[in-house]
Structures are given as structure tokens and as C-alpha cells.
Amino acid sequence: MQRGKWVSQTLLMEFLLLGLGDARELQTPLFLLCLATYTVTMVGKILIIVLVVRDPHLHTPMHFFLMNLSGLKTCYSSTIPPRLLASFLTGDTTISVQGCMAQFFFFGTFATSECYLLAAMSYDRYLAICQPLLYASLMNWKVCLQLVAGSWVAGPLISTGITSFISHQRFCGPSATDHFFCEEAPLLELSCSDTGMIRILIIILSFPDVVFPFLFTLASYVCIIAAVLRIPSSMGRHKAFSTCSSHLTVVIVFYGTLIIVYMLPRTVPLRQLNKTVSLFYTVLTPLINPLIYSLRNREVKEALGRVLRRPAACTDSSNQVWVSGHKSGSPAN
């Protein structure tokens, strides 16, 4: 009884995120850098969503998936950077246990949903290149909605299980974690419960979480590359590959950083590298995605050009109306 009372009294109520270091002179530059990155990321994502919704030329399955990926990335980008900006601005690096679990849940939710959405997009590109004659019938709007809905639902379902396991751990000290957000491995290092079983359960859940969608995406692109290489003309190969190059680049960046972060051993010499790569895939990767799609996707560039030309055309039209009206209303000499 006495031991149980002592444990309950020493349970942690908050964690201390050591973040990117205690260098005070770097707080302002890091704040400005993260603020600029976050702002550009949000503007880029919202711009892609608006373009797809407003431009009839982008009402295709591929751009419907792209719009949902941008919406997903908008949510994903809002789980960590706002808290990071607040810590840079105020110097307060503490986070409550409940807040930490909420951040962990939403980050895991959107990361898992992105894995499934990238897999759905790879299936779309597979049908477009390997089954072009059947594409319209196989990738109809009903299938698109089902794939997108499944991606959005898979994230919270899997993340709920992992978050539930971790939230039932006892955290009774130390309270400091050498990271800038609440992640699975640093949290388990702070647990004073037996983590053997939960580590096994997390490995099991990682298969539907990351491994299965990754293998599906990988298999899709193996088939796509094989089909592209069978095209006799170099012009045909370039045209076919250009339809999926943007998505392939996003997949490589996303899974590449994810594999580096979670496959690196958590030793002291590699801890700083782990945090740097984590910063890349949580803050910088969402910034890169809209740039990739805007620079490498011809339809998106053309839609952006039409939107930018429209205000100028309206302005010229208004000026012509005003000039003609002014001339017609002027008195005759």
C-alpha cells in the first residue's frame, strides 16, 4: 500500500523537451526559420487545394488525390511546428503528459494516413501507365472516394492503438527527453514500467502502419518502371515517366527520411543526427512537397498560370470599360 502511494505521488505530470539544444543565441534565428517554413508550407498547401477545387482542368483522380494529400499535409504540419514555435518564442519547453499524448496521437494519425494515401496514389499511377485502356473504368470517382476515405480512416484507427498502449505506461522520472516533440522511442525511454510487451505490440502494429503500404507502393513502382522500360521510343518513355515523377519524388523523400529516423540506432553519437533528420521530415518535408508538385507537374503549373493571369485580365477589362465610358461621356468640341 505504501509503495503504491509512493509511485502515485511521483508520477510525472509534464515532460521537458530538450529540443534542439540550449543555445539562447539560436532561439531567434530558429524561430524565424521555422515561422517562415511553416507559413510557406501552409500557403503552398492551401494554394494547391484552391487550384484543384476551382480549375475544371484539374478535376481528375490524380489531382483529387493530390488535393487530399495537401489537406493531409496541412494537418500534419500543424501538429509539431506551432508547439516548436511557441517554445522558441517563450523559452518554455515543458509539455503536459496529456498534451504530449495528444501530439503523439495526431502526428501518428496523419503520418499513417499519408502512407496509405501515397499507396493509393501509386495505384492510380500504376493503372494510368500499365492499364491505360481500363483506367477510366477502374479508377472512377467511387473508387477514388473509397481509397481516400480508407486512407483518412486508417490513420486514427492504428494511431489509437499505439497511443493507448503508451498512455498506459507509468512515467515517474526522469522527465527530460532529448527531443523536440513527443515520439515513441523517447517516451518509452522515460517509462518506469516494463516496456518489453509494448515494444513487441508496436512492432506488430508497424506492419499495417507503415510496412504494408510501403511494400504496396514499392510493388506498384516496380511494375510502373518495368512497363516504362518496355516502351520502344525514348519520347514515349519520358512522357510516361513524367506522369508519375512528382509522386515518386515525394515517396522517396517521405520514406527515405522515415527509414533513416527509425532504422538508426538510438546511440548517443547518433542522437543529434536523429533529431536533425526528424526536423527535416516533420518541418521541411511538408515544405518541399508543394514545390515538387508545382515545379514538376505541368497541369498544376498551367492552372497556377491561369489563376495569376485572371486578375490581370480583369484589370485590363475594367480599364477598357472605364476608358470607353469616359470617351462616350465627354462633351463634343
Q: What would the keywords be for this entry?
A:
disordered C terminus, mainly alpha, single chain, 333 residues, disordered N terminus, 3-stranded mixed beta sheet
Quick structural summary:
The chain has helices at residues 2-9, 27-54, 61-77, 81-90, 97-130, 135-138, 141-167, 184-190, 196-229, 234-242, 245-263, 268-296, 298-329; strands spanning 14-17, 94-96, 176-177. It is mainly α.
Write structural notes for this entry.
With 333 residues, the protein is mainly alpha-helical. 77% of the residues lie in helices and 3% in strands. The chain is globular. The model is unreliable at 1-9 and 321-333 (pLDDT under 50).
Give the number of DSSP strands.
3
**Overall body shape:** globular
User: H/E series, N to C?
Assistant: HEHHHEHHHEHHHHHH
Give the termini distance in whole angstroms: 107 Å
Specify the biggest β-sheet: 3 strands, mixed
* β-strand amount: under 5%
Poorly predicted spans: 1-9, 321-333
* Global mean pLDDT: 82
Structural class label: mainly alpha
Please bin the fraction of helical residues: over 70%
Q: How are the strands ordered across the major sheet?
A: 2-1-3
Radius of gyration, in Å, reads: 25 Å
Count of helical stretches: 13
